[in-house]
Amino acid sequence: MPLPPAPGACPSPATGVGTGRAAAGRNLSLHRQLAAGGAPSTRGSAWMWLLFGALGFISGQLLAALFVTVTAAISGNLGSISAITRLTEPPTWYIVSTLLGLWAGFLGTAWLATAVRGTKSFVRDLGLRFRWIDLIGIPIGIGGQILVALMYVPIAQHVHNFNQRFNAPSQRLTGGSHGVGFFVIAVCTVVGAPFFEELFFRGVLLRSMARLFGDFGRWVGPALAIVVSGVLFGLAHAESLQLLGLAVFGIILSFVSYCTGRLGMNMVAHATFNLVAVAAVVAPLALGTQAPF
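^ that's the sequence the OP posted. Answer follows.
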């Protein structure tokens, strides 16, 4: 069901809404795109997108395990997988294999959503478009890191070994890599993760929830879609201590995507957010006696 226009919705430079594919190609907010019949065009399609999302996430976990097993067999580490999984700093091949498996699931979700219940166009259905204005995502990403840091100031004093526990995911991702391996992990973190995660969480999940919740009051529906998709983004990382910060930043990314109707600005923001995290790992090494390269 198309969404009714919402007073005070995120501003758009376009003056008209249009219909169908023409509207989806304009720089309209997500609300206006869905109101004009953008994908997912019906609630039934939105439920199917969510189903594809669940299947894609599960498939990503399974593919990650499969890729790790195959890579371990090729490298002669098949008998050590259990021990490697428990390492605080796993080797580069393990990290990359895991990421590729997860991203394959995310990409498969987007492909199914557009191919089965869309127009078969990533650009049109998921808002995979970029504009020069998307560079605003750089200060958004930096601001997101600052906001998260400030949020944890009152929490840190109540958590034993807070800094070590809070930095553990970043250390697990990059700490076991050096030289070319570190460069590969950095590229995956700053380029790969923002692309595939935004395609999944903001391209598929946010849009399907916006279609399902969109006509629940003036702001309630859009707010639910933004908040729920942001919280799911945080939960998907499976890090209890970092959940609050990741969920808040996920909500910010969902809000940005809802307002722009595209993935460009939040991909830039997400990449910048991750780049700051990688730089935080590199900086102490660069200032000390060790270097990651």
